[in-house]
């Protein structure tokens, strides 16, 4: 069997648990079109992601746009709507509420309360910056990237700081919109890999930059972990 490529996080589940019950969809037949990825992997209309450090110890990621706040914890994702408040900004969805003023925020659910402080912001990746890419995952030591094409079921895998790179077809084995989870497998028997994408707060382990998805790439007997973001047109 040939090798795939020739040379060329977060916090405790104290407060925010998963927002949906995972399901096990049947494998999806490969096609000629790229799949529609769960919206929880995207920033929506937001231009930036914000990382928050909270007490009790937990990390959150948010993306705010007009009329909506997207919130990610280590175990799920929420889309909160604006609510009336005397000062600052408040968003709610069912039992989850997020209030912030400046760099401070309070998150409340039926499980308890988090007091948070913003410490980093990252501009969301755009299609202009990454033409033809609908999702980008990346990690460090060694540096790697996985870029999903927006118009066909193909992924470009770049490993070892770009010294090994190949574009390959993939098939979807799991697509769970409610849980924000996607699992992709190689479309070629001689070049196996698995790419797992799950919605949830993710901080780059070198820069600390915030992302809305955790990504795990398994290839050639190795496992690479990192963060990722869906990129809308």
Features:
single chain, 233 residues, mainly beta, Lipocalin, 2 domains, 8-stranded antiparallel beta barrel, 8-stranded antiparallel β-barrel, 16 strands, disordered N terminus
Distance between the termini: 38 Å
Would you tell me the structural class of the helices and strands?
mainly beta
Strand proportion, as a percent range, falls in over 45%
Instruction: Please state the overall shape, judged from the principal axes of the Cα atoms.
Output: elongated
Number of helices: 0
Q: What's the gyration radius in Å? A: 18 Å
- What does the average pLDDT come to? 89
Can you walk me through this structure?
This protein is an all-beta fold and 233 residues long. It has two domains: 78 residues, Beta Barrel (Lipocalin); 107 residues. Helices cover 0% and strands 55% of the residues. It contains no helices and 16 strands. The strands form two sheets. Strands 1-2-3-4-5-6-7-8 form an eight-stranded antiparallel beta barrel. It is elongated, with a radius of gyration of 18 Å. The N and C termini lie far apart (38 Å). The relative contact order is 0.24. The N terminus is likely disordered.
